[in-house]
Amino acid sequence: MIDKPSASRTILLPLAVVAVLILVWTGVWKAGIFHESAFPSPLAVLRGFGEEIRSGRLFNDLITSLFRVSCGFVIAVATGVPMGLWMGQRMAARLAFLPIINFFRNLSPLAWIPFAILWFGVGDASPIFLIFLAAFFPIALATMAAVANIPSVYFRVARDYGLQGFENLTQVALPAIMPQVVTTLRVAAGLSWLVVVAAEMIAGRDGLGFAVMDTRNGLRTDLLVVEMIVIGLIGVVIDRLLAQLTKIPSVRWGYER
Amino acid sequence: MSGKTIQLEKVCRSFGTVEVLREISLDIHRGEFVAVVGPSGCGKTTLLNLLSGYDRPSSGVISREGHVRMVYQQDGLFPWLTVEENIALGLRQIGDEKERERQVAEMINLIRLKGFENHYPHQLSGGMRQRVELARALAGDSDILLLDEPFSALDYLTRLRMRQELARLLRERPRTVALVTHDIEEAAQLADRVIVLTERPAQIRFELSIVAPRPRDLTHPEVVGATHRILTELGFEHDAEGIVASAAQT
Questions:
Q1: Residue-wise DSSP of A54-117
Q2: What is the DSSP pairing of strand B68-71 with strand B18-29?
C-alpha cells in the first residue's frame, strides 16, 4: 500500500500550479499579445466576480442549470438502470437493443438541438431532454454490462439460502452492480454538465450556457472568464459529491479488490 | 445414524456429446463424511451439482433427504455484506431477531472471529473468509454440507489449519458431508469414506473406508496408509509393502 501524501501537500501542490497559471495569464496579458477586449486581466476577472455576486444573475443561472441537469439526470437514471438490468438478464433483449443503443450513444446529443427546439421550444424542457439523451445510453450500457458480469456463484448462494424472486434483484443483483453503477453515474453526470452548457447556449433564455452567449454578445470577456471558472468548479463539485457514494461501506468493496 | 441421506443409482450425466459421469451409484449415510477425489476435469463438480439438486442427471435416479448447503470453490461470500450479515443469511428462517443475533454471535465465536463482525470479506484473509463461509453454511438447521474444493485457493499451512477447523466445527455441528477435492491427503484426513473417480467419463474406480475416529492428525497411520493406497491405485506410488509395514509398526 502506498503511503497517503500529507494533507498540506495535497493542498499546496495544486495551489502552486494554479498560482503559476495565473502568473502565465498575467504575463500574456502584460505582453499585449491579444487585444485588451479579447483577453481580460486576472484583476478584471476578480472585479467581475464582485459584480456577479452583487447582481445575483450568475447565481440564478447556476440554479437554473443545476435544476435542468438534476431533472435530466434523474430521469436518465430512473429509466437507464432498469433498462440495463433488463438487458443484462435477457439475452434476447441485449441482442435486440444493443446495436441501437450503441448507435445513439455515439450520436452527440448536441445534434438533437434543432429537434429539441422544434419539439420543446426554448425553456427547461429542451435542455432536460438533451441531458437525458446524454446520460441515458451510457447508464443503460454500463448497467447491462455489470449485470451480465455478476458471478453466477452469487445466485447459486442465494438459491442455497432460500432467496426468492424479487429478493434476487434487491439483495443480490443490485448490490453486486452498485460499484460499477456509481462509477457510471459519475461519468454520466460529467457528460450532463458538459451538455447543459452547450444546450443552453443555443436552446436557452437563461442558465449558464445562455449566460456565456449573452456575455459574449456584450463583449464582457471578464465576466465570460468568471462564468467559465464557475462552470468548471461546479462540475468538480458534482463529481466530488457523487464520489462520496464510493465510500458507502456496502459499495466500497468494488474499489478495493 | 444409518439412514441414507443421499442415494445415487446408476447416475449418468452428459453435456451434448460429452459424457461426464457414467453409471455412478453411491449411498451417503446420515452423518457420514464422504470425500470424492479424482483427476482434474473428471466431473467432480458435476457430481456435486447433481448432489445439490442444482443439476439433473441425464439418466439414473437421485434421492435426497434434507436441506443442502454448499461451500464453493470461488468466493461465495457476498462482498457487500459484513461477516455478521453473511452469516445471518444462513439463519434467515429464524423469525425472532434476538434469537438470530444470538446464533450469529455463537457462530462467530465458534469460528474465532470475534471482533471481525463488522468487517467486509475483502478486509479478511483467505482463510478467514473460508471460515466465514463454513459458519454461514453451518448456521441454522441444514442437513447436508457440500464442499467444492473449499480450501484449494489457500496456502498449504492455512489449508492444514482449515482442515482442523472443519473437523472441529463438524464435531460441534454434525452434518452429512460430501467433499470434492483433488487433494488426496485432505480426503484421507477428513473423510470416513473416500471415493476415487476415474478419468472422464468418470466412474467410481474404488472406494476406501477410514475407520479411525475424526478429527485425526495428518500423520495418523490410517491417514498415511489411506493416502498411500489411493496414490498407489492412481499410479503415483509403487512401494505398497514398505509403507504398510511401517504403518503397522506404529
A1: HH-HHHHHHHHHHHHHHHHHHHHHHHHHHHHHHHHH-HHHHHHHHHHHHHHHTS-GGGGHHHHH
A2: unpaired
Residue contact B69–A251, C-beta within 8 A: no
Q: What separation in angstroms does the CA of B203 have from each of A238, B28, B44, B72, B231?
A: 62, 16, 11, 23, 17
DSSP B122: G
Beta carbons of B75 and A157 less than 8 Å apart = no
Residues B54, A151: C-beta atoms closer than 8 Å: no
Give just the sign of the alpha carbon dihedral B71, B74, B76, B79. positive
Burial class (CB in 10 A: 0-12, 13-18, 19+), B31: middle
| DSSP state at residue A6 | P
Residue B124: Cβ-neighbour burial (10 angstroms; 0-12, 13-18, 19+): middle
Given a cut of 70, whether residue B247 has pLDDT beyond it is: no
In chain A, which residues have their Cβ closer than 8 Å to the Cβ of B80?
A: 175-176, 178, 250-251, 253
Q: Do residue A162 and residue B54 have CB atoms under 8 angstroms apart?
A: no
Cell of B114: 470475534
From the list B119, B46, B52, the residue with the least C-alpha distance to B87 is B119
> Among all residues of chain B, which has the CA nearest to that of A177?
B80
Which of A151, A157, A257 is the closest to B122 by Cβ?
A257
- Of residues B186, B198, B220, B216, the one with CA closest to residue B19: B198
Which of the residues B49, B73, B78 would you substitute to probe the A interface, choosing the one with the greatest number of A C-beta atoms within 10 Å?
A: B78
Question: What ipTM does this complex have?
Answer: 0.83
Q: Half-sphere exposure of residue A230, counting CA atoms within 13 Å on the CB side?
A: 27
Report how many Cβ contacts below 8 Å link chain A to chain B.
50
Tell me whether the omega of the peptide bond preceding residue A82 falls within 30 degrees of 0, making it cis: no
- Our CA angle for A143, A144, A145, nearest 5°, is 90
* Average pLDDT rounded to a whole number, residues A45-69: 93
pLDDT of B1 reads: 44
Q: How far apart are CA A121 and CA A219, in angstroms?
A: 27
Q: What is the tens place of the pLDDT at every residue in B157-176?
A: 888 888 988 998 888 889 99
Rg of chain B taking only CA atoms, in angstroms: 19
Asked if residue B201 has a cis previous peptide bond (ω within 30° of 0), the answer is: yes
Nearest to B197, CA basis, from B25, B64, B66, B16: B25
Q: Does residue A153 sit at the B interface (CB-CB below 8 Å)? A: yes
Distance CA A66, CA B240 (A): 81
* In chain B, residues 52-91 whose CB comes closer than 8 Å to chain A: 52, 54, 68-70, 72, 74-76, 78-82, 89-90
